[in-house]
From TrEMBL:
The keyword Membrane applies. Keywords: Membrane, Transmembrane, Transmembrane helix. This is DUF6533 domain-containing protein. The chain crosses the membrane at residues 64-85, 105-125, 132-160, 180-200, 231-250, 256-276. It comes from Mycena sanguinolenta.
Length: 333
């Protein structure tokens, strides 16, 4: 038996597993480092836009969401990289592993909830601030987060954390059951729902011809921007989330982090672009005062029927809530 062992004294099957573990972990660490630097690069190259479009604007719910979406992943990426890239056996204690897994899960769910709140607000805006729709989507979103959190919690509870998956090889990792991939099902379902609602509104807007123009922009142009960016967002994020689900279901647990970092870092970058694009489009083409700009500045003619006659009524997209910028009291974006 001893003669059949390689010079390392480790059985070939075990050695093969160790080599695969080391290779996969290096891949995951490379992805972690690459996405963290990508996020930092994106942050630094768009900081001037943030200063111009956000820093000196009135405080609002949407502005709070923006800064949370912008800076929480930045802090999370720094912490995750510090732990996941650490190879010291003395620092990767059971306590550190436990706290890191909780921090990573909490950060991922918080960022997810923030981004979805931004998306729901956009849907609410293009559907003329429908109270019924915002309530339905709010409940749906909470149920979706609860379902994903439950799957995550059960999977982590039944998982086996480790800081030394191979002899002399140290990294924070965890082995989870196959149904861990079900975490992404409620999320993708909610994203598809938002996409369909956006698409429906986009088709309706495309068919709408009775739109008046105010200050060089129209309600149709506004919705076109919202729909265009939302469609692009959906295809990018759907690919990221579906890829995560595939890796978590079929790949070795040592590769989980290679895909997870995409799910944590990419959506906030794209969501930031959504907010910047809309804000910039109005900054370039409107001449109104800030409090009269953007969504609430557009007025569309809506057909009504009275005594069999078709008439048109001009009204603000914002209804009777008053004219405030979308980052203000009406928090539209």
């Amino acid at each position: 038996m001893a003669d059949s062992l390689p010079p390392t004294g480790i059985p070939p099957g075990v050695l093969k597993q160790i080599i695969a573990q080391v290779t996969n972990t290096r891949t995951s660490r490379t992805c972690e480092l690459a996405l963290d630097f990508l996020y930092l690069y994106d942050y630094l190259t768009t900081l001037d836009q943030e200063v111009e479009l956000m820093w000196f604007k009135p405080m609002s719910f949407m502005k709070v969401l923006f800064f949370l979406n912008r800076y929480l992943p930045l802090v999370g990426g720094f912490v995750n990289a510090s732990i996941f890239l650490d190879e010291s056996p003395t620092s990767l204690t059971a306590s550190v592993r436990g706290h890191w897994f909780k921090f990573q899960i909490g950060t991922a769910l918080a960022v997810l909830g923030i981004i979805q709140a931004i998306l729901v607000t956009r849907i609410w805006a293009i559907y003329n601030r429908s109270k019924l729709l915002i309530v339905i989507l709010g409940i749906f979103g909470c149920l979706q987060l609860a379902a994903s959190s439950t799957v995550m919690g059960i999977s982590i509870t039944k998982g086996v954390p480790s800081s030394e998956p191979g002899p002399g090889f140290f990294v924070c990792t965890i082995t989870t059951p196959p149904y861990f991939a079900a975490y992404w099902i409620p999320i993708l379902t909610f994203e598809v729902t938002l996409f369909v609602l956006t698409l429906i509104r986009g088709v309706e807007n495309f068919r709408q011809t009775n739109v008046s123009v105010l200050s060089g922009k129209s309600a149709q142009a506004l919705i076109n921007i919202l729909v265009r960016d939302s469609v692009i967002y959906f295809f990018i994020i759907a690919a990221v989330y579906a890829g995560n689900a595939a890796v978590w279901y079929w790949a070795d647990p040592s590769l989980y982090q290679s895909s997870s970092v995409f799910g944590i870092m990419v959506p906030p970058m794209v969501a930031t672009k959504l907010l910047f694009n809309l804000r910039q489009s109005f900054g370039e083409e409107t001449t109104l005062k800030p409090e009269d700009q953007e969504l609430t500045a557009f007025r569309a003619r809506v057909g009504t029927s009275s005594s069999g006659l078709r008439t048109y009524q001009t009204h603000s997209v914002g209804g009777d809530l008053g004219q405030w910028e979308e980052w203000g009291r009406n928090c539209l974006s």
